[in-house]
Fold this sequence. Notes:
Blueprint: H1 3-37, E1 63-67, H2 74-87, E2 94-97, H3 105-113, E3 118-123, H4 125-135, E4 142-146, H5 152-156, H6 164-173, E5 175-189, E6 200-203, E7 206-210, H7 211-218, H8 221-227, H9 230-237, E8 245-251, E9 257-261, E10 263-267, E11 271-272, E12 276-277, E13 289-296, H10 300-314, E14 326-333, E15 335-348, E16 351-372
Parallel strand pairs: 1-2, 1-3, 3-4
Antiparallel strand pairs: 5-6, 5-16, 7-10, 7-15, 8-9, 8-15, 10-13, 11-12, 13-14, 15-16
Amino acid sequence: MRAEGWIALAADLVALAALVLVVLVWRRQARWHASRTGPAAHPPLSAAPATPPMSDQVKGPLLAFVVNPSKPDAATLRLKVLAACAGRYLREPLWLETTVEDPGAGQARAAVAAGAQIVVAVGGDGTVRAVAGALAGTGTPMGIIPLGTGNLLARNVDVPLADPLAALHVVLDGMDKPIDVGRLHVDRWDPEQTGEHERDHLFLVIAGIGFDAAMVADTDDVLKAKVGWIAYFVAGVRHLHGSRTRVRLALDERPTQTAKVRSLLIGNCGRLPGGITLLPDAVLDDGWLDVAAIDTRGGLAGWAQLFGEVVLQGAGYRSTTLAKIGRIDHVRARVVQLHVRDAITAQVDGDLVGDVLALTVRVEPGALVLRVPA
């Protein structure tokens, strides 16, 4: 075998080893979450009483559930929610279903207008983001019952992911925590982009351009329904050899910087599916955005080194090697202005924004009250 062949083989082996390490970390993380969200960690919810509660027995806050009805568990979950609320002598909750035209913002506003003291997003990241957009700045707490693929915000605040009734426990017995939200504004679109597009987007976890947005755009919905977040990984493999992007970046009042990157991520918190911690310094209530510039060179060997960097930083270690072909550089800011010469796709919390040339991203400290485990 020629030298080039041995080099390619070595790069493939390093990439495979990095992938195996990521999977092992994910399995350990999954076992840890299972130990926290299993039956022993959450006592059973009270069953509905044999007789309906008298009107003078009804107490507690009025809950509203904003539900994505396309999720498989949504229909049966309603009966369990009603039983749990009746068992605690709570008022009958509002049950508001989202639509394609309105994925949750209008329903959340209607819930607040009807007097709901807690509004619960029941669905995936899109439903959570829509409800949060309506509640940010109102002081009305938001709960989460995750029924999606990524469940990004729920994952970052330790809301149980695979047990809707355990998540309901957090809604009923948890505590209120003000968290930051990110606001992405599209300053300039791709001139070739057609149709109407929203310029302003709230995000709770991560916004980004480059490899991550291309991966989101290319993920197969059917595969995602079958295998969950692994569908994103499958889509990502198809973009490993994509081109790098030259970006001009201004952070707060600092001078503009220029860099070539695979992805530029702007995050509010950093835990992703698979046990991956992409932004280890990101904290939901610190008033900062964490910016990560991700770059690789050298084909698969660069991606393998990047995987290693991500796994190590998730375990609390930072590499000090200067000459890297796969790297992730971190910085913090409250305002991020970004320009690219060639239009690139942007995403917020896994939802596509569109093809952009310039963005401004800001943090709103403490804008959303979130119901989290006590």
